[in-house]
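Subject: design request, 233 residues
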């Protein structure tokens, strides 16, 4: 009888040992099994949403009537007709692209203006006036570089924005600087009591209008974007 009980005891011990050898399920492992598919699904949803937003924005821009966009952009300026005539040959209806094109127009005008001082220098004998005209030439060239710098800020790669709040602040500063350069030129000629002051002022009309319009557009471009349900991109 004792031997039988002993065998039964061994049998119980063996049974306990068999149960202890079965690996217990880790609760953390269960949690990971649930979380990983959920995270994958969430990532897929986010990517799909971003793709749809980009697609919808691009579609909106492609459907935006060019004439409406140009009118909206130029309505922000002090010289809307000058603005419209400069942009009418644009192939883009994107307000930001239109602004960049308008900066190109401004650069072209300033380059033409920078040639004026040399044209006037050969007509004067007063060395002080000649010096003032050379200063004007330098100021105009600096203005060209400032507007070119503004344009370069809008040259972006994939995923970058053409305009941001910081970029707009830089561009406004550079356009204002270019406008100041033109005024400084006139001040210098005025100090010389030169009759060329009025000649130069007339030569500056287009450039002043383009710069004034550029400053107005960049300062309020968010209003145009809102009007067409667009964002800075």
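Subject: RE: design request

Done. Sequence follows.
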């Amino acid at each position: 009888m004792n031997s039988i009980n002993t065998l039964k005891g061994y049998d119980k011990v063996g049974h306990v040992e068999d149960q202890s050898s079965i690996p217990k399920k880790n609760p953390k492992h269960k949690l990971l099994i649930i979380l990983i598919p959920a995270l994958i699904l969430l990532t897929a949803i986010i990517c799909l949403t971003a793709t749809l937003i980009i697609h919808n924005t691009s579609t909106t821009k492609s459907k935006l009537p060019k004439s409406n966009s140009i009118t909206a952009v130029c309505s922000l300026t002090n010289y809307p007709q000058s603005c419209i005539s400069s942009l009418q040959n644009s192939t883009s209806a994107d307000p930001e692209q239109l602004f960049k094109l308008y900066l190109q127009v401004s650069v072209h005008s300033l380059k033409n203006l920078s040639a004026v001082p040399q044209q006037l220098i050969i007509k004067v004998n007063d060395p002080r006036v000649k010096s003032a005209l050379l200063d004007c030439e330098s100021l105009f060239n600096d203005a060209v570089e400032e507007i070119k710098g503004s344009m370069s800020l809008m040259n972006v790669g994939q995923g970058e924005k053409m305009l941001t709040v910081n970029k707009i602040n830089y561009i406004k500063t550079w356009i204002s600087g270019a406008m100041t350069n033109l005024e400084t030129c006139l001040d210098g000629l005025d100090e010389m009591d030169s009759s060329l002051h009025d000649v130069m002022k007339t030569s500056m009309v287009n450039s002043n209008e383009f710069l004034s319009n550029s400053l107005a557009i960049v300062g309020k471009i968010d209003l145009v974007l809102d009007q067409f349900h667009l964002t800075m991109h």
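Residues 4-8, 12-18, 49-62 have pLDDT under 50 and may be disordered.
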